[in-house]
Amino acid sequence: MILRTENIVKQYANHLALDNVSIEVPQASIYGLLGPNGAGKTTLIRIINQITAPDSGKVYFDGHKLQETDVYSIGYLPEERGLYKKMKVGEQAMYFARLKGLTKHDAEKSLRKWFEKFEIQAWWNKKVEELSKGMAQKVQFIVTILHNPKLLIFDEPFSGFDPINVNLLKTEILNLKKQGSTIIFSTHNMASVEEICDYITLINKSKNVLSGQIDEIRHNYGDNVFEIDYRGETDKLMENIGNNYQVLDSGEQKFFRKIKVKAITKETGNALISRIIKDAEIINFNEIIPSMNDIFIKIVEDDK
Ligand code: ADP
Q1: 3-state DSSP call for residue 191?
Q2: Could you read off the pLDDT of 258-283 as tens digits, one per residue?
Q3: Segment 25-79, tens digit of pLDDT
Q4: Where does CATH 3.30.70 sit in the chain?
Q5: CATH for 223-288 (1.10.3470, 3.30.70, 3.40.1350, 3.40.50)
Q6: Distance 6 CA to ligand 1 centre (A)
């Protein structure tokens, strides 16, 4: 585990922002922090970054209790980003890189490489105030990852980006993982979660309501629903399936039939296949696995 929080509690004047939140983030993974607005995600991120202190609970980083010097090993991209408007982009990026401890030579070399990669070389001498939100975000992203921190934390990294730049960012996040960094990011964008996260925690109303490996979670929330395309007699198929299944939908295509069934008591896909294969030719067989979006909505709605 590169990061572990243990029973974090944070109380603001009249609001309990985090209620006993524990998370475990494995090394070299991409970890999504999900939850509706106001759930407590940013508060947790700020605690990990030592911007604010918890009332109780502990944070462990890389095998030891989180300490001040760990800020050099953690890169943080906050949602509310501050660049100095009057400074030039390159100058500003150099300033941040030097703050992170890079020499002038290394900072410039590395920044030039990244500016090229993100195709923003032409902005080096422009003033920050000339940048659009997305452009400024790119610069901040570069500055955050430049010193190769072990842990990267991005608060809503995809907001304000068009789909092309979202992809660029996703690719870079995956590259960073390949190189051994661990990435935690908060988001409302569930598609990005399914695409790149290995683990998630869902925070709702200040509590950790769901944590784990993403495929495992999706499977666990499966409703035992299967979709089958087949050739054969429907009556025969129904007879073979038996009465443990409820038919949710069925239809005729030109060359095959479709049926969607739900197992009333849990059965594996294999068990169902063995029932129907006797008298039908299976063209397609799918277990319907809920999306993270469905799971998010279900949990948050049920918890109202
Ligand atoms: P999220 O990032 O999940 O949207 P936040 O962690 O920003 O949620 O906020 C959680 C709750 O704590 C919100 O109700 C917010 O209003 C409150 N909160 C956050 N920061 C402060 C603060 N400095 N003082 C008082 N309340 C705060």
Answers
A1: helix
A2: 999 999 998 889 999 999 999 999 99
A3: 999 999 999 999 999 999 999 999 999 999 999 999 999 999 999 988 999 998 7
A4: 223-288
A5: 3.30.70
A6: 20
